[in-house]
Design goal:
Strand content: under 5%
Number of helices: 14
Helix content: over 70%
Oligomer: single chain
Length: 364
């Protein structure tokens, strides 16, 4: 039974819903420290993030034990803070992944958790709160709640303005989200201004050819595509694909070299690796498949560019060890290359197909 039993609640404690902060009427029976206004929000939180962190919340939301010395107490506080920092990043990554997958409703509870843990660790006015505000803004935009998105963005902007130590990476995220807001409002001039700033700050933080800068190019390309400025859009889509291909190909080459050099001397299976967390893998999939859809609509005029994005997706899924998906894209690339491209290009794709066939037989 998960209805709150009043006599079991410590005196003076105000119980709020985890999702909306309304007065709570239900409690999670698994951890007994998380409360909800009703079954709808309990299910939403469970499906988004609570199932993954339920037991981790217990030591954070129960009274600290009695310590024999100040040294022990400080150690206990440090451990508590480390747990909260771990949950900040974990909840943030989960929320990001949902956003890149287009699951905006599911992203909200995870982003709210990240925000609250940030408030506990860093205070109410820290610039560390900004990434969580921006996640909530993006989720709100995806749900069509533009006013709510603007409120979260205002909080983020105000926090950045008050801060004297805001890094270029945070400025980049803020401008990217402002760009997305103005895109949703179809104010493309203002959106272009903010996305240009996003690219500038991301380039300052990471370099012009970094995958973390590619999102700004991608969104700017989408604006030019909507405005029918196809040459500009094409240039930017090509740049985005080149950035991701270079990144993934570098990882593939390192992996191949390691295998050839037999670095794994203990004989354990050598795992593929994109070097990305789950959220950024989801971002790569979204950016590359969206670009592929646009390329396929013009493949008759420029098949090389379609084959290039297909090869990039092959590398991504190969490194993610999703060999069936990688083979699907490799076959599509090979079919198009046979119709439109040179024998040399066909042979490079055939090599990828041979590699995938070998991996599939290994994994059986």
């Amino acid at each position: 039974m998960n209805v709150i039993y009043p006599l079991a609640v410590p005196k003076g404690r105000r119980l709020c819903c985890e999702v909306c902060e309304a007065p709570a009427e239900r409690v999670c029976t698994a951890c007994t420290v998380t409360y909800y206004c009703g079954v709808v929000h309990q299910r939403a939180d469970w499906g988004s993030i609570h199932e993954k962190i339920c037991q981790l919340l217990i030591p954070l939301r129960t009274s600290m034990p009695f310590y024999n010395s100040e040294e022990e107490r400080q150690h206990g506080l440090q451990q508590l803070q480390q747990r909260q920092k771990h949950l900040i990043e974990f909840c943030y990554t989960v929320a990001q992944k949902y956003l890149f997958e287009g699951k905006h409703e599911e992203a909200v509870p995870a982003a709210l958790h990240s925000l609250r843990f940030r408030m506990n660790v860093y205070g109410l006015s820290s610039v560390e709160l900004v990434p969580a505000y921006l996640l909530l803004s993006e989720a709100s935009l995806g749900l069509g709640r533009i006013v709510q998105a603007e409120e979260y963005l205002s909080q983020a902007q105000w926090t950045v303005l008050k801060s004297t130590e805001c890094c270029a990476a945070i400025h980049s995220l803020l401008h990217r989200n402002l760009g997305l807001l103005y895109m949703a409002k179809e104010n493309y001039e203002e959106a272009r201004y903010h996305l240009a700033n996003d690219i500038y700050f991301a380039s300052t933080a990471f370099g012009t050819e970094d995958i973390r800068t590619s999102g700004g190019y991608f969104h700017l390309a989408n604006i030019f595509h909507k405005l029918n400025k196809l040459d500009l859009a094409d240039t930017l889509y090509t740049k985005v694909t080149e950035i991701w291909y270079k990144y993934l190909n570098n990882h593939y080459q390192v992996l191949s070299h390691s295998r050839l050099q037999q670095i794994d001397l203990l004989g354990k299976k050598f795992e593929n690796d994109t070097g990305l967390d789950e959220a950024h893998e989801a971002e790569a999939i979204r950016i590359l498949t969206s670009t592929l859809s646009i390329r396929e609509s013009t493949s008759n005029t420029d098949p090389e560019k379609t084959v290039f994005i297909l090869k990039t997706l092959v590398l991504l899924y190969y490194l993610m060890m999703n060999y069936s998906k990688a083979q699907e894209y490799a076959m599509a690339a090979f079919t198009l290359a046979k119709e439109k491209l040179s024998v040399h290009e066909q042979s490079t794709i055939q090599e990828l197909l041979n590699l995938l066939a070998a991996e599939e037989s290994h994994s059986r």
